[in-house]
Amino acid sequence: MKKKIIGLTGILLGIAIAFIPPIDGLDKNAMIVLGTVVTANIFWIFSIIPNFATGLIMVASWPLFKTVKFAEAFSVFSGSGWWIVVGGLGIGAVATKTGLMKRVALYVMRMFPVNFKGQTLAMIFAGTVVAPTIPSTNAKGAIAAPLAKSISDTLGYQEKSKPSAGLFAAMFWGFIVSAPLFLSATSTNYVIKGLLPEQLQNQLSWGYWFLIAIPWAIIVLVGGYVLINVFYKPKQDGKIEKVNIEQQIAALGKMGRDEKITAIVLCITLVFWILEQTLNVSSSIVAIIALSVLLGLKVVSPVEFRTKIPWDAAIFIGCAMSLGTVLGVVGVSHWLEVTLGTIITPILSNPIVAILALSLIIYAAKFALVSLITAATVFLLVLMPFFSALSYSPVILVFIVTTSINVWILPYMNPPYLTTEAAVDGKMSTDKYAMTSSLIYMVLNIVGLLISLPYWHFLGLY
Fold it and tell me: What is the pLDDT along the chain (462 residues), one digit of tens a residue?
């Protein structure tokens, strides 16, 4: 009943915005689009109906009410940005299905001592290695969390104890927090890129994205490892044999044909993504060809193509990306620039102020904007009208948004955190420990962004 009331309120609010006299600087079409966006965001925040269904209704309403043409409303679905999402989600689904990613994670973990220090480092390292191959933080969390629980049990840590929560935090750090380092590590990154002007999209290739993120990642990942070992370390930590890890590796058996093919395709795909600008081959084309090869070699069957790939997520992402195009067409982007200029311009006056102010604003907004994609979309749509007036590259603002939305002061604020927690039945950590790890990340994120500035200056970003 509560969802129905909220949903009805969202619809009525959208209708009210759509049909009130247009605000100065906007016309009737812009007001209708704004109304649909407000309703859609309320539906997304409170999960009134499936996110992709909300997105489709929103996008379909624009040509229905003749605010924009059908081709403009759905133009994203014919663009390269959406097709790399489809290819990336497909490759990730195959890598998960064949067990390749679990095998890689276990082999990495076997390289480190089986104690708290060794396995927290293993979790962060393994997650970072696996991160670029699966563009779904939920999928990676579902794979990695049970591994962390198994290690915790092997080390004899009590459920929800400090060291158990520390291993959970290290797992989350490696498999989820590392996502901003790689364009292909989460579908949210694809949405962020897809919302940007075409010229900026072309600049942000897989390799350039990684290049920009390096210093931030070093601060956040290394700092996270150190602080997890400070705040969560057990009173006594003895080293034990790697029996549990060896047993899990043995249970996987030898690499089969499908797993080997997937590994080869993944390696080739990553090479082409890294060298996208050098080879002048679009990442979306590479992703589609890679997925087609996996289909052609029957690593994934037609039935699995229909059922394993999260098509609902792909549609939702496409609908979110459409906002960037349509808000520009109906003039909302220009209106935001004029209306919010006096407020936002001082915040964006220089990159240091932008980092400090925007990150804190985004942290606060996450209490309401739960969905990572929704949060990223809202902030980028507000900021994009100011890109042309910046004295530094808008890439810096893009990266601030990318890293700052991923907080979990309370678990509900971060869907991937809820997924990983559910994967171990909530038996590894507590809300108190979650808050501690999130606060650690929030501080390290700001420090990492600030320390990146001299490096970004060297790259010519400001």
Answer: 788 999 999 999 999 999 999 998 899 999 999 999 899 988 887 889 988 899 999 999 999 999 999 999 998 888 877 888 788 888 878 887 888 878 888 888 888 888 899 999 999 999 999 899 888 888 788 888 888 888 888 788 999 999 999 999 999 999 999 999 999 999 899 889 988 988 898 899 999 999 999 999 999 999 999 999 999 999 877 666 677 778 888 888 899 999 999 999 988 998 888 888 788 888 889 889 999 999 999 998 999 888 888 888 888 878 887 887 888 889 888 887 788 888 898 999 899 999 999 999 999 988 877 778 878 988 998 899 999 889 999 999 999 999 999 999 988 788 889 888 888 888 999 999 999 999 999 999 999 999 999 999 999 998
* Cβ count within 10 A of residue 314: 22
Q: Are the CB atoms for 56 and 382 separated by under 8 Å?
A: no
Cβ atoms of 124 and 444 closer than 8 Å: no
- What separation in angstroms does the CA of 442 have from each of 215, 225, 405, 407, 432? 16, 14, 10, 7, 15
Domain that holds residue 118: 2-458
What the block records as the tokens of 94 is: 């195959």
Give me the number of domains the chain comprises: 1
- Beta-carbon contacts of 425 under 8 Å, excluding residues fewer than 6 positions away, are none
